Amino acid sequence: MRSSQIKARALENGCYVIAPNPAGNTYTGHSMAVDPLGPTLAGLGDKEGLAIVDLDLSLVAEVREKLPLLNNRRADICADNGLPVKLR
After folding, report:
1. Among residues of the chain, what percentage have pLDDT more than 70?
2. Which residues are 20's β-sheet partners?
3. How far apart are CA 88 and CA 86, in angstroms?
4. So what's the pLDDT on residue 29?
5. Which residues contact 54 (CB under 8 A, 6 or more apart)?
6. The whole model's pTM is what?
7. Quick one: pLDDT at residue 68?
8. Separation of alpha carbons 2 and 8, rounded Å
9. Can you give the pLDDT at residue 82?
10. What is the mean pLDDT of residues 51-63?
11. Read out DSSP for 24-86?
12. Cα–Cα distance measured from residue 35 to residue 5, given in angstroms and rounded to the nearest whole number
């Protein structure tokens, strides 16, 4: 479930998503890095570790041009800082 949500956030925002999560003890791990189109660039599974990924920032611009999903942002209910605006 978490993996699907992370990939959805990357696609919706047209950006890389780096999602760390502790591993071991009561934690589940599964830290991951996802590119703007949703494919997983690195996933650590349930182990502790370090992943190094190359981020191509031109891909962000390309994805946002081809999939201008941010243009659908509702400025009337979202402030510029990303926090909800109180409706009157």
Report:
1. 84
2. none
3. 6
4. 80
5. none
6. 0.74
7. 85
8. 10
9. 57
10. 94
11. ETTEE---EEE-TTS-EEEE-TTS---------HHHHHHHHHHS-GGGG--TTTB-TTSSBPP
12. 13
